[in-house]
Amino acid sequence: MLYDYPEYYETAFSFRNIEEETKFLHQCIKQFSKINVTNIFEIACGNAPHAGLLTELGYKYHGLDLNRNMLDYAAYKWKDLPNKLQLLEANMIDFSYPEKIDFAYVMLGSLYLNSFDEIKSHFDSMSRMLNVGSLYFLDWCIQFGDPLAHNGNNRFTIEKDGIEVESEFQIKLLDKANQMYEEIWTINVNDRGRHKQFNMIERNKAILPEQFLHFIKERDDFEFVGWWKDWDFNHPIENEHDVTRPVALIRKVK
Ligand SMILES: C[S@@+](CC[C@H](N)C(=O)[O-])C[C@H]1O[C@@H](n2cnc3c(N)ncnc32)[C@H](O)[C@@H]1O
């Protein structure tokens, strides 16, 4: 698993602008939160890339991940922050957390849920943990358009601190009726002359926009706030089919 080698994961995704993403989360809180936010929780936090900047903004960071190496890497990387990170090793499908949280987020479509039962169980867990009035921000978790349309041009190489990582993504439809997809991610690493290859297969149930709206409407503990494209609150998604990296926001109401 690439996630067992957090440094390689970090290099593979170092094209992201973490500062801009953090500012966006902060803006989201200022614009839409109905409560004061202190405690922030990241689902599938991995290496916790936003933890440093969120702490500088005055938030207290909490994260959940299944992978111990990722959590250890995050704890070590941010060990000098004034507030120690609170990290939980758990499966997002069903978990309990001892503290109440004021804002939660999940990045890069990292909702690893394979059935409606798992989706329901995840949102039940979130509901238990979140304070009334808090927001849950979901990046790239709702499937607008056809993911297969992007097959073919998903190869890129990135180099950082002497480590070169070449990634290639392919998506396959496994089960049309249940919207199950398989993402095949091949990674070749050249770590200062040492070569490694990772072949990751991740299975995911796509959550379609109308299914998500229906799911939230049926629950009495969350309300839908909105969704936007290009990480821009001036660009709400309206009748669009092919949107890259859509973000969605829901609020805990009960
Ligand atoms: C693409 S990484 C995202 C890391 C980080 N949030 C970021 O923005 O870069 C996905 C993470 O999800 C974690 N993960 C996968 N399945 C999980 C599950 N069922 N429960 C909790 N974490 C999971 C992996 O260990 C990995 O660290």
Report the CATH architecture of the largest domain. 3-Layer(aba) Sandwich
Corresponding CATH superfamily of the largest domain: Vaccinia Virus protein VP39
Q: What is the CATH level 1 assignment of the largest domain?
A: Alpha Beta
Mean pLDDT: 95
Query: Would you give the CATH topology of the largest domain?
Result: Rossmann fold
Spans of 5+ residues with little confidence (pLDDT < 50)? none
Overall, the morphology is: globular
List the ions, cofactors and other small molecules found in this model.
S-adenosylmethionine
Order of helices and strands: HHEHEHEEHEEEEEHEE
Strand content: 25-35%
Helix content: 10-25%
How would you summarize what this structure contains?
The chain is an alpha/beta fold. The chain has helices at residues 6-12, 18-32, 51-56, 68-77, 116-129, 209-218; strands spanning 39-43, 60-65, 86-89, 101-106, 130-139, 155-160, 163-175, 180-191, 194-205, 222-228, 247-252. It folds into 2 domains: 2-143 and 208-252, Rossmann fold, CATH 3.40.50; 147-205, Single Sheet (N-terminal domain of TfIIb).
What can you tell me about this protein's structure?
With 254 residues, this protein is α/β, with parallel strands linked by helices. It folds into two domains: 2-143 and 208-252, 3-Layer(aba) Sandwich (Rossmann fold); 147-205, N-terminal domain of TfIIb (Single Sheet), CATH 2.20.25. It has helices at 6-12, 18-32, 51-56, 68-77, 116-129, 209-218; strands spanning 39-43, 60-65, 86-89, 101-106, 130-139, 155-160, 163-175, 180-191, 194-205, 222-228, 247-252. The strands form two sheets. A seven-stranded mixed beta sheet has the order 3-2-1-4-5-11-10, with helices on both faces. A four-stranded antiparallel beta sheet has the order 6-7-8-9, covered by helices on one side. Strand 6 and strand 7 form a beta hairpin. It is globular and about 55 Å long. Residues 3, 13, 42, 44-46, 49, 64-67, 70, 91-93, 107-108, 110, 112 line the site of S-adenosylmethionine. S-adenosylmethionine (SAM) binds at residues 3, 13, 42, 44-46, 49, 64-67, 70, 91-93, 107-108, 110, 112.
